[in-house]
């Protein structure tokens, strides 16, 4: 049985860590040149402020995907709130269930008052056509510079 629900980051991070590492290994590890090193206090604080949302997809209780979403008010659009994807990932062996996570995430963001949802894709895992089919429009390209 496939389920998706919000979970407390601190309660599930040990279980989803292998998935987090898979995402990091796609591109971030090479671009940033640093290992994952989560700030548990910051995650807890942002959850307490209802800004950070950890959505976990499970199959028979085992994590197969996750979506880390941040929600914030848009100062340039008074009264509007945006959901932004920090990370979204479904294990390659379970990609046939990806739509469940995406659809749950969209409903979840709407239910939390978001009027827009921003997402960036990693170039090696570019899924632009998928997101366009879900109603997204390409709006910008993101560049990252590691400043040492």
From TrEMBL:
This is GNAT family N-acetyltransferase. It comes from Acinetobacter baumannii. Residues 2-148 form the N-acetyltransferase domain. The lineage of its organism: Bacteria, Pseudomonadati, Pseudomonadota, Gammaproteobacteria, Moraxellales. One of its GO terms (molecular function) is acyltransferase activity, transferring groups other than amino-acyl groups. It comes from the Bacteria.
């Amino acid at each position: 049985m496939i389920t998706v629900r919000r979970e407390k980051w601190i309660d599930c991070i040990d279980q989803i860590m292998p998935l987090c590492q898979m995402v990091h290994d796609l591109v971030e590890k090479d671009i940033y040149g640093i290992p994952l090193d989560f700030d548990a206090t910051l995650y807890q604080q942002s959850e307490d402020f209802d800004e950070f949302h950890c959505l976990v997809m499970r199959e028979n209780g085992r994590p197969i995907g996750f979506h880390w979403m941040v929600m914030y008010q848009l100062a340039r659009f008074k009264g509007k709130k945006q959901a932004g994807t920090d990370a979204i990932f479904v294990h390659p062996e379970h990609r046939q269930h990806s739509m469940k996570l995406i659809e749950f995430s969209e409903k979840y963001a709407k239910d939390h008052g978001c009027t827009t949802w921003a997402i960036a894709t990693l170039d090696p895992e570019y899924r632009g056509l998928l997101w366009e089919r879900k109603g997204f429009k390409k709006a910008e390209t993101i560049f990252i510079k590691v400043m040492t």
